Amino acid sequence: MDVLDLSRWQFGITTVYHFLFVPLTIGLSVLVAGFQTAWHRTGNPTYLRMTKFWGRLFLINFAMGVVTGIVQEFQFGMNWSDYSRFVGDVFGAPLAMEGLMAFFLESTFLGLWIFGWERLSPRVHLATIWIAAIGTNLSAYFILAANSWMQHPVGYRLNPETGRAELTDIWAVLTNSTTLVTFPHVLFGAFVAAGMFVAGVSAWQLLKKRHVELFRISARVAMAVTLVASIGVALSGHWQAQIMTEQQPMKMAAAEALWEDETSAGFSIFAVGDVENGRNHINLQIPYGLSLLSTNTLDGAVEGINDIQARYESIYGPGDYRPVVGLAYWSFRLMIGFGMLAALLALAGLWLTRRRRLPVSPWFHRIAIAGIALPFLANSLGWIFTEMGRQPWTVFGLMRTAAAVSPGVDITEVAITLVGFTLLYAVLAGIEVRLLLKFIRLGPEDETEKPSEDTTPALSY
After folding, report:
1. How many domains would you assign to the chain?
2. 46, 226, 392, 418: which one has the fewest Cβ atoms less than 10 Å from its Cβ?
3. Domain limits at 285?
């Protein structure tokens, strides 16, 4: 391995690890706000207990996401300084907006929510958690706008004197068509993650027969959110696939191991390919599926890897413009598979808990606990596909990954930081899991018959 390989591994590890916290934070912020709204409107103390219980878990996850996100941003200067120099004028704008507007919004009002139970009126206090949730979602939007520019650069010009990309239209960057399809897809995926987390934790409590009514409600709400969000993931993913086919046809071709241009193309279920010779030995397909996914028509034309490779060589010069086809192919399938399993689990849970029922057998509770992992696996694989499928480009069509790495960093320095970050994140993962398990076991607080806002959901050790 060289500096480039190790730098890619380091950025991949820290990014995937950070994104384990992001979807849960996005989804839980809205669920906690929803539970507090239900308590504010009904006065039912069960909803107050739900708000504080899930609020504690949300705060733990939020804090860990902030810590890991800071480390991730440092790498742009550490390992990818040539990338930062090239795109800093464009890439930095949405990231600055995220920090100065969205993050400050969510952190400020989250602080008011944590410490405002005794000090703010019920209506104002409720507004603080909703504003924090809005800030969390805005934060995601600005970050996705920056990432989408790497996938489909718009609103810029290349300065021939400095060799840098310079921002010309911030509105074009913020309304990038890639951003407009990616944001709802990520948002729905976050609600699936939060829904399955709440459902799984509720299933554990129900398996132990603790606070049955509270966690029955939590489980039902969470499974409904998961099912609806899963439908949203599928619809937004279909839209995203069409944009991807138009903007990054090589990524779609690699996702389907499609080697030659094809009309009425089938969706591959299982394939065994020969990458060196650009063909498949085995390819089980759903007829017309890929054309429908990519073009919304049964007879639509989809470009193949070999044909795109030849076209890119004529545009960008000699080189291998194929991503790792096997990785793109299987990450795409596993992403879809894990997401579908989460939706089916939510549907089964809603059926088993209909009319205030609870599953008699413990099997569903145990499956639901294990099901917490499904959306996190799907989200991680989706991002691996998104980023690895863009290779060999860091900024599609403008800058290759090999040209983005820091020139002054040697392999020893990258190896040390790679091992250091990995070990640090392992420690942080242990702390996160320990804290979550501690407060899950403690369960929700008991409230008086006439609930008041005299207790704080702040963590206590």
Report:
1. 2
2. 392
3. 249-322
